[in-house]
Write a structure and sequence with these properties.
The protein has about 550 residues and is of the alpha/beta class. The protein has three domains: about 120 residues, 2-Layer Sandwich (Beta-Lactamase), CATH 3.30.450; about 160 residues, Alpha-Beta Plaits, CATH 3.30.70; about 230 residues, TIM Barrel (Alpha-Beta Barrel), CATH 3.20.20.450. It has 19 helices and 17 strands. It is elongated and about 110 Å long.
Length: about 550
C-alpha cells in the first residue's frame, strides 16, 4: 500500500513547476517541447504572434518545418549541441510563418536528464527596432564576409558586460580544391554544412565569417576552448566525410585566443583587428595562426597599432623620399616620363608598407602626399612628366577625390605632365564611381595607366570598365613569358587588344638588351627597368638632353 504524497510537498512541486514555466516565458514568447522523433509534442505561448498559427496546430509538426529553409542546417546543428551539452545560448534564426514570411527570432533550448530525448525550445521575437540592416555574406556558406565579421568581432569583443569572448581562426587547407572536385550539388551542400557548424559554434549563431576560400573565423564565449575546438573539428570532419572527400585531403587547424582590446580606442581596435585578420589570411597558415595567436590577439593588435602610429608619424613628418625611374620609348629609347616611387626609412619594403597602409586606412594620406610632392617636382623641372601610383581604395574616397583634383589643378596648363597609375593591391568595389572619377581626370588632361597588369585578377575587369591610356605589364609576368608559351601568347594578345583600344603598353623590369628586344617584338611600346636607368632622386632640369629626335612631351 502506498501512502499519498503530503499536500505541502505537492504544493511545493507545483510551485517549482510554475516558477520554471514563468522563468521560461519571462524571456520568451513561445515554449515548444520536441520529442525524440523531432516533432512538436506540446506548445504554449504566443504562437499566433510568432508563427501566425494556433498552438494546437503545431503539435505533430516536424520542428524543422517551423524554421526557414535557409536556417534549417543551423537549427539542426544547435539541436545536436543540446544532446551533448544539455543547453544552448539563444541564437538568431529565421522562422517560417504560416503567411509565407520569415522573421528573425532568438531560439534557445535545453534538455532535462529525466525526460529522455525530449528538448524544450524557447522562441523570442526580435523587436523590429533591433533588426539591423542585411549583412554582407559569402554566398556559398551563408557566413559573414571578412569585413562584416571583423565588425561583428570588434563589437562583441568590446561588449564587456556580456562576458569575455574568444576569437577562433579556422583553416581548412585543401577545402576549396576538394570541393571543386565534387558534383556541384554535393559541393554546395558541403559548404552549407560547414557554414552551419561554424555559425552554431559562434555567439548568437551568427558571429562566424569566411575570410578566404579556406580560412574562417568565429567568436565564441570564453569557457572550455579545448572542448569547443574538439567539438567543432568533429562537426566539420563529419561534414567533409559525408560529402565523400577522402580522409586527409582536407587538413583542419583551429587556433583561438582571448578577444580583448585593452585600452585601444574603437577606431584603433577596428583597424588592428582588420589587419590581424588580413595577416592571418595572407599567412597561408604557417606562422600567424599558430605562433602569433598563441602570444595573444592583444599583442598582435598592439603591434599593428604601434606600426600604425609609426607609419602615421612618417607620413605626418614626410620622412620618406620619392625617387624617379625613367620609362622610355622602346623604339627610340627616348625618355617618355618618370614613375615616382616611394622609399621609406630603414629600408622598409615599399609594397608591404603600401598594403599595410591600405589595410589600416592610411593610404589616402600617403597617396595625397606623393601626388603633391610629384606636382612640386614637375613644376621645378623643365617639362619632365611624372606618373604616380593611386590605390584603388583611395579613388573610392570622396574626400581624396576632391583633394587630388585640387592638388593637380596647381599644374594649370601643364596637367598633361602628370599621369596616374591605378594599382590593384586594393580592389575597386564601386566601378561606376571610379570610372566617373577617372574620366574626370582624363578630361582635365591627365593620362591613366593600369598598373601591374597580369599580377592580379581584376585587371581585365578594369579594362572593360575604364578608358585608359596605358597598361603596364607586371615585371615577373613579362619575365615568365621569355620561356613560357602561355604567358607569351597572353601578353601578345594584350598588346593587340590595347592597340585596338587606342592605349599603349609598358613593360616592367627590363634589365638587358635581350629583354628589351623581346618586349618590343611582343608589341610592347614602352619599357621600364635598370637597362634604361635606375631611380634618381631629382628630375632632370633639362630632360630634352635625354631625348633623341622624335621624342614626345605629351602622353600620346
Amino acid at each position: 500500500m502506498t501512502s499519498e504524497i503530503p499536500e505541502h510537498i505537492v504544493r511545493h512541486l507545483r510551485l517549482e513547476r510554475d516558477r520554471h514555466v514563468a522563468f521560461a516565458f519571462a524571456a520568451a514568447d513561445l515554449l515548444i517541447e520536441v520529442g525524440g522523433a523531432g516533432t512538436v509534442v506540446a506548445a504554449s505561448g504566443a504562437a499566433h504572434a510568432v508563427l501566425d498559427a494556433d498552438t494546437k496546430a503545431l503539435v505533430g509538426q516536424p520542428i524543422f518545418d517551423l524554421v526557414a529553409s535557409c536556417d534549417r542546417l543551423l537549427v539542426r546543428q544547435l539541436l545536436k549541441q543540446i544532446q551533448v551539452s544539455f543547453r544552448i545560448d539563444p541564437a538568431v534564426v529565421r522562422i517560417a510563418r504560416a503567411d509565407g514570411t520569415m522573421r528573425p527570432v532568438l531560439l534557445g533550448g535545453c534538455r532535462l536528464p529525466d525526460r529522455g530525448d525530449g528538448i524544450f525550445i524557447t522562441i523570442t521575437l526580435v523587436p523590429d527596432a533591433l533588426v539591423g540592416p542585411p549583412q554582407e555574406r559569402d554566398a556559398s556558406t551563408g557566413l559573414l564576409s571578412q569585413e562584416a565579421f571583423s565588425a561583428a568581432a570588434k563589437r562583441l569583443g568590446s561588449d564587456l558586460a556580456k562576458g569575455p569572448r574568444r576569437l577562433e581562426l579556422i583553416r581548412l587547407d585543401g577545402l576549396s580544391g576538394a570541393a571543386r572536385q565534387l558534383p556541384p550539388e554535393r559541393a554546395s551542400a558541403l559548404l552549407e554544412e560547414i557554414g552551419a557548424a561554424l555559425r552554431a559554434a559562434s555567439v548568437g549563431g551568427d558571429a562566424a565569417g569566411r575570410l578566404s576560400e579556406d580560412a574562417f573565423g568565429i567568436v565564441t564565449k570564453a569557457g572550455h576552448p579545448g572542448q569547443q575546438d574538439t567539438t567543432l573539428a568533429s562537426d566539420i570532419a563529419e561534414a567533409i566525410s559525408e560529402a565523400g572527400i577522402p580522409e586527409g585531403q582536407v587538413a583542419s587547424r583551429i587556433a583561438g585566443i582571448a578577444l580583448s582590446f585593452g585600452d585601444l580606442t574603437n577606431e584603433e581596435a577596428s583597424r588592428a583587428l582588420s589587419y590581424a585578420l588580413n595577416t592571418f589570411v595572407k599567412s597561408q597558415g604557417s606562422d600567424f595562426d599558430v605562433a602569433s595567436l598563441e602570444s595573444g590577439l592583444t599583442k598582435a593588435m598592439n603591434q599593428a597599432v604601434t606600426r600604425f602610429a609609426d607609419t602615421r608619424r612618417i607620413l605626418a613628418d614626410e620622412r620618406f623620399m620619392l625617387v624617379y625611374q625613367p620609362v622610355v620609348d622602346l623604339a627610340t629609347r627616348a625618355v617618355h616620363h618618370y614613375e615616382a616611387l616611394s622609399r621609406f626609412p630603414n629600408g622598409a619594403n615599399t609594397f608591404e608598407t603600401v598594403t599595410f597602409s591600405e589595410d589600416l586606412g592610411l593610404i589616402i594620406e600617403l597617396d595625397l602626399i606623393v601626388c603633391r610632392r610629384a606636382v612640386e617636382a614637375i613644376m621645378r623641372s623643365d617639362k619632365a612628366s611624372v606618373a604616380v601610383n593611386v590605390s584603388g581604395r583611395s579613388v573610392q574616397n570622396e574626400a581624396f577625390r576632391r583633394a587630388l583634383l585640387d592638388v593637380a589643378a596647381r599644374l594649370g596648363g601643364a596637367r598633361h605632365r602628370l599621369l596616374f597609375e591605378l594599382t590593384e593591391s586594393a580592389a575597386v568595389d564601386n566601378l561606376a564611381q571610379a570610372e566617373e572619377f577617372l574620366a574626370q581626370l582624363r578630361a582635365a588632361g591627365h593620362a591613366i595607366c593600369l598598373d601591374d597588369f597580369g599580377a592580379g585578377a581584376t585587371a581585365y575587369n578594369y579594362m572593360r570598365q575604364f578608358n585608359v591610356d596605358f597598361v603596364k605589364i607586371d615585371g615577373p609576368f613579362l619575365k615568365a613569358a621569355s620561356d613560357r608559351n602561355r604567358e607569351r601568347a597572353l601578353i601578345r594578345s594584350i598588346c593587340v587588344l590595347c592597340d585596338e583600344l587606342g592605349c599603349k603598353v609598358i613593360g616592367e623590369m627590363i634589365e638587358d638588351e635581350t629583354e628589351a628586344v623581346f618586349a618590343r617584338n611582343l608589341g610592347i611600346a614602352h619599357g621600364q627597368g635598370w637597362l634604361f636607368g635606375k631611380p634618381i632622386e631629382q628630375l632632370p632640369a633639362a630632360p630634352r638632353s635625354m631625348r633623341r629626335k622624335g621624342s614626345s612631351e605629351t602622353w600620346q
